[in-house]
Design goal:
This protein is an alpha/beta fold and 347 residues long. The chain folds into two domains: 185 residues, Rossmann fold (3-Layer(aba) Sandwich), CATH 3.40.50; 156 residues, Orthogonal Bundle (N-(1-d-carboxylethyl)-l-norvaline Dehydrogenase, domain 2). It contains 15 helices and twelve strands. The strands form two sheets. It has an eight-stranded mixed β-sheet, with helices on both faces. The protein has a four-stranded mixed β-sheet with strand order 4-3-10-9, with helices on one face. The radius of gyration is 19 Å and the shape is globular.
Amino acid sequence: MKVAILGAGAAAFALAVLLKRDGHDPVIWSPSGEGSAGIATTPIRASGVIEGEFAVTVASKCADAIKGASAVIVALPAMGHRRVMDAAAPHLGVEQVVIISAHISFGALYLDELLTARGLKVPIVAWNTTLLRSRKPDSVSCRIATLRKRVDIAVLPTRLADRGLAACTALFGDRFNLRSDLLAVSLSNVNAQGHMALCLANFTRMELGEVWDQSSCSTPAIARLVEAIDAERVALAAAFGVEVRSAKEHKLQTHGAGATAAAKIVTYGPASVDSRYTLEDVPYGLIPTIMLGRLTGTPTHLHQAGVDIFSALYGRDFSLANDLFSLSDTMTAGDFQKACQDGLECL
């Protein structure tokens, strides 16, 4: 099965490796072309839970990557989602399925709006997190730490959920939990909360470029902070009538029963302040949570504190950095929940 992968970072490389290993035909397209230049003539060298060399096709144009693909996967940090969705939307067809890995900041609504303008509805599958935990050490390598056992997904619009789930299963096997709607799966994403606590407590390590292990640096104090931040997310979900797993339960889903704190493969923390753990998760993860908190009257004090502290650390206003998601002044919680089921045109 041909699969277009839009992006050329660690997530894109890991997905390409997994798909190629399992007999599919992944085609990578990079918006700038820089991230994919190294693998145009050289196989991806994979290490970790998947080992080997995997030659994949690189497309020079977005249209070429999408043409004839059964599925199209958006696999890059949220800072690039709008650019990629703008490029992809004119070329998508009714027979295709779009997967967003990992969905953040309600980007599925943005893409749905672009497609609605064309009179087109396709299943847009939102993953609550990446299927693989991976790093890209250099331009041709991918280090895969984890292939997740279960991932929550939602499909927009919900009436196309069966098609979306079937596509994911055909490509990656039976490892997906279908949730009720986009809101449920978005509120299941725990990355922003976990990364906020980890980076706040280890920021000087990042700034000094130190090599540090996330597991050993996730001390009991950080665990308590994660739990406190996560409690705000869980309360917000409850305000919408949505059940979500806690961060602890999410960790169990990722690693499986009997998993210990010591990972089989060390996962290093960011060695630079130019990290998606902050530059992506603060504006695209924390900010939407705060917006939804205001919509429902749910306190999100720790989320707001995180945004304010990171804004001070970086000397920029992260509240202005999100180009995907905003709420209209007249939208109610009920309006937003309906949009997460049927798309914005239902309002």
